Amino acid sequence: xxxxxxxxxxxxxxxxxxxxxxxxxxxxxxxxxxxxxxxxxxxxxxxxxxxxxxxxxxxxxxxxxxxxxxxxxxxxxxxxxxxxxxxxxxxxxxxxxxxxxxxxxxxxxxxxxxxxxxxxxxxxxxxxxxxxxxxxxxxxxxxxxxxxxxxxxxxxxxxxxxxxxxxxxxxxxxxxxxxxxxxxxxxxxxxxxxxxxxxxxxxxxxxxxxxxxxxxxxxxxxxxxxxxxxxxxxxxxxxxxxxxxxxxxxxxxx
Length: 254
Prior knowledge:
254 residues; mainly alpha; Multidrug-efflux Transporter Regulator, Chain: A, Domain 2; 3 strands; elongated; repressor
């Protein structure tokens, strides 16, 4: 007769909240084999099996596939910890992303309770994060990027969101004004047009305090060549506005 260290699938299910169907599947693929199976095919799990199951559940929360979890149990302690370390970084990334969402929702509920949530801004989180990563890779060793990072560190998360909202409003106002000039057939080389680039420069300096004419030239290239920026600038505006602004920037910095 089995001692109290063995449990039926139903008992394991109650303890761990894992369905008996899942336990059977884990058995079939060899991930969690019951320590004892009697002559009638009844399965019994030892307390050590439950400990292993808890490890499996933990690894699943780290987004490891069942195949990778099987491989995990075959590794040395050093290699196991290397796997955990790799997935730890991913979990930190997910946590930070969730914190951003929480901050945005908090900002919306406090400051815009009588308005419907702006999904464009909500979806902008992923885009902004991608831009930050790309900027770090491309310009991480430049004075411009360091100026940007130093500027961001002086704000808490809520202040960053407020600053970003205000900056985005300024960008949109600038784009609308430039779009009107384009629609009114003003040339990008016209002084009346390119003098507005001074406004763009001031907006950029809210994010990158040391932004100068060379930085403006970088932005001109970005507006022309990065489809994501072009799409954002031209949204509900002239399809060539991004190119128009780039030409105006070059006229301004001549």
